[in-house]
Specification:
With 514 residues, this protein is α+β, with helices and mostly antiparallel strands. It is built from 20 helices and 16 strands.
């Protein structure tokens, strides 16, 4: 009792007991405010000042403090780090952590104190800035606060894959009822879909959503003029809520969801086994409607689910009658292959837009590409990385021509020219070593210069000499020898025997054909 600081109002109680005739022993035994020794010291001062006379008034606390001002307690021992105080202060101001400071003291001065002693000393000398705060009050249905937090590592029991997760949390500011969901990423699409499911969970929409400056919501953080993600702006317009972005580096302005995230991480996540992402979210939903919703909240002293069902649920704005089409907007650049990329999938646009920047709008089932405000391309949404969706109208003419003139196209064109032309192309495509597509395309292209009849005759002559190649057909047409009489069958057999193998492709073959 002797080491306890005695308040001034307690001195008044002791003096008043003395005025009533109580002894020091009785005061120490009954009041238990001071010891007999302390009571004796107080009585001595009270007698000197005349405070024990009933005709005099009890002294006020301002008077008592001049006689009984408590001196600050002195520490029994000084810190071993005290001789190095100036150097420690300098290191602390430079941002050096306590463990490094302790190591430096041991290394430089053979410091014998413990790390804890250094840590305690640093705590005493640090400037402690106490900042007063104001609790923000919200009306029912006025707002909700949203944030992401790190989630648990989940190992899927079927695939055996372990993946990192995030926890999306939306807390209604008035009732403190919350919605939470475990997700795999923090993309714009995930952000928007979590909002949709949260509104459906609450069966209503709050008037304002208070958020941090995550990239999936705010493209440029600013105290006065933040830039909202285009996709999130469309979502807000569709559901009818206002986006309220907190100033950068001021998370206290959405403290309710900050506490909500910690509550989910500390109360739900530990000591649970999750078989998959679906199983984790099923457990989380049950936990929200049982434990989290029915706990007595520390600030409201009521159950969040009760406050929500009795009051706030009826004040939230109604969900839209028509389903809102959520979409993700992204600035994309047209590659040299006439495609833009979105989530590792590729979609074609006009070849005239190569190297230009465009806007891409992605929904659940569709991809639309915009130049300024005009939609210039529409594609089905692809999901597998590396997939490509190409419209032929978007390709340059020369590229489209090459793409369209495949082997089947060449054979169809040859059949229209004649049986000899068809025979030569069929033989070319049977080559198992060399790709003969360009040779076949070249033979078909000779029709434009020489006409179908001459080309057919040239192919007949080339076939007779077993010269199945583009150069031979072209030389026949160039020399105008396609209508010359064919050699005798014996001569042809001898010729074929002579030039079997490499001979039919040599310059000698071309000379004989001529």
């Amino acid at each position: 009792m002797s080491n306890r600081n005695i308040a001034m109002h307690e001195y008044r109680q002791v003096i008043n007991a003395m005025r009533l005739g109580h002894s020091d022993r009785l005061i120490a035994h009954k009041l238990k405010l001071v010891s007999r020794t302390k009571a004796k010291a107080i009585r001595s001062v009270a007698l000197t000042q005349g405070w024990l006379l009933l005709e005099n008034n009890l002294p006020d606390e301002a008077t008592l403090i001049t006689f009984f001002k408590t001196a600050p307690k002195r520490r029994s021992t000084e810190s071993l780090a005290l001789p190095y105080a100036e150097e420690i202060k300098r290191w602390v101001n430079e941002g050096i952590q306590a463990s490094t400071i302790h190591q430096a003291l041991v290394r430089k001065y053979q410091f014998s104190g413990s790390y804890d002693s250094v840590q305690r000393f640093i705590y005493r000398i640090k400037d402690k800035k106490i900042i007063a705060t104001t609790v923000l009050d919200f009306s029912p249905g006025e707002s909700a606060q949203v944030d992401f937090g790190a989630g648990p590592l989940i190992t899927d029991v079927v695939t055996g894959q372990t993946f990192k997760t995030w926890i999306f949390v939306m807390v209604l500011s008035w009732s403190r009822h919350l919605y939470a969901e475990i997700v795999l990423d923090q993309t714009v699409e995930t952000w928007l879909n979590c909002h949709r499911r949260a509104f459906e969970f609450f069966n209503g929409v709050p008037g304002k959503i208070i958020i941090d400056n995550a990239k999936c919501a705010i493209t440029r953080a600013c105290y006065y003029d933040p830039e909202v993600q285009r996709s999130y702006r469309e979502c807000a317009e569709g559901y009818g809520f206002v986006i309220s972005a907190c100033p950068p580096r001021e998370p206290k302005k959405k403290g309710r969801v900050e506490s909500g995230v910690k509550y989910v991480k500390n109360n739900f996540v530990p000591l649970r086994d999750f078989r998959s992402l679906v199983d984790a979210n099923a457990q989380l939903r049950d936990w929200i409607l049982s434990i989290a919703g029915n706990r007595t909240h520390g600030s409201t002293c009521e159950k969040p689910l009760t406050r929500f069902e009795e009051v706030e649920q009826h004040i939230l704005r109604s969900l839209p009658t028509e389903v809102i089409e959520l979409s993700s907007w992204k600035k994309v650049k047209v590659h040299g292959d006439c495609h833009v990329q979105f989530e590792k999938c590729y979609y074609s646009v006009s070849h005239t837009l190569v190297s230009q920047s465009l806007w891409l709008r992605a929904t659940e089932s569709c991809i639309r590409v915009y130049q300024e405000y005009a939609c210039i391309a529409t594609h089905p949404r692809l999901r597998k990385a590396g997939q490509r969706h190409t419209l032929n109208d978007h390709l340059p003419p020369e590229g489209l021509a090459f793409k369209m003139r495949d082997p089947q196209w060449c054979l169809d064109q040859a059949k229209q020219i004649g049986k000899n032309c068809y025979h030569i192309l069929s033989q070319l495509f049977q080559d198992k070593v060399l790709d003969q597509l360009r040779a076949a395309q070249g033979i078909i292209a000779l029709k434009k210069t020489y006409g179908a009849a001459r080309l057919e005759a040239a192919c007949q002559r080339a076939t007779a000499f077993n010269a199945i190649n583009y150069r031979s057909v072209k030389n026949i047409l160039k020399q105008g020898s396609e209508y010359q009489p064919l050699p005798a069958e014996i001569a042809f057999d001898a010729l074929a025997e002579t030039y079997t193998g490499k001979g039919i492709y040599s310059r000698t073959t071309s000379t004989i054909i001529q």
